[in-house]
Amino acid sequence: MSRLDELRETMAEQGVDLVTIGPGAHLAWLLDIRPHGDERPLLLCVTQSYAGFLMPSLEAESAAQQTDLPFHTWGDADGPDKAFAELLQMSGAMDAKSIVLDETMRADFAGLVQDALSDAKRQFTATTVGALRMRKDADEYAKLKRNALSADTAMKAAWSAMKTGTSETQVADIIRDNFASQDVKPLFAIVGAGGNGAFPHHHTGETLLQNGDAVVMDIGGGKDGYSSDMTRMAVMGTPPKGYTEIHAIVEAAVQAAMAAARPGVKAHVVDDAARGVITDAGYGEYFMHRTGHGMGVEIHETPYITASSQTVLEEGMVFSIEPGIYLPERFGIRLEDIVILRADGPEILSDLPRDVEIING
Question: Which of 214, 239, 302 is CA-nearest to residue 26?
């Protein structure tokens, strides 16, 4: 069954008459096409009987190389209104009672749809495209696994080159260069040494690595439309006071989250498990972010593993487990793995242990 067929099946189950999608991750997942997006309205409209594009004429020739779905083209001189009316008429959407808007599309694109179908009940993609994207198929798993292993290699390359006096930026450059050598696009490399590690999203800079620094290393690279995301810890020489104890607490939180993650469990139960370990150890106030996020064609997507999430986890979902403890002006510790949920629990995509890497040099 194609993803478009899956979408139509879900639309029927949810009582949705029309799904409208703009350029971006939803469209890339659904049809594997990535048209250029700008201020010119470009929309895919899907009903049970029709699927077609409102397509700027400037984009039509290029987009036609990626899809054989019909285009309703328009030019700058005329504007999109006539072409969009034709698309809605052809698709049978003029009488739609329930419509889905891509929540990531431009507001003026969404306005075009709502103005044309002002009496329809509107919702976003959570129960249609979003729900389908959360469950990864075998091909998606293979791409995510390959990306995870490439991150393992990039992390080990950085560890091999790190030494006291090396800057955070230089370490990040080593990671990016290694990704590139694997034909993987470097996406991000957060390197936080010493007190900088206490900022969960530290902006990697010119701080030099010194003996006794704990170093947070959060990296990711992308290939074939998917990516990696992994955080490991390194210590320069002798660990700072309290490091070993707190690393063990964070590792216990990871393991508790892994044990809680099962099909049929609500996402907040996984967050509760990780957060409970850290809180019981007396460091609850120093764990200030969610336990995880989904990952697929986007690095951050549903399901979100938060304290309030009511999303029911299902087999095939892919998400991070990444608890942390961040002690201001001392150090931070975050341990992150991407997992795919199997019938008996999570499978970790990385092969790299979460043990701290001791750097001597």
Answer: 302
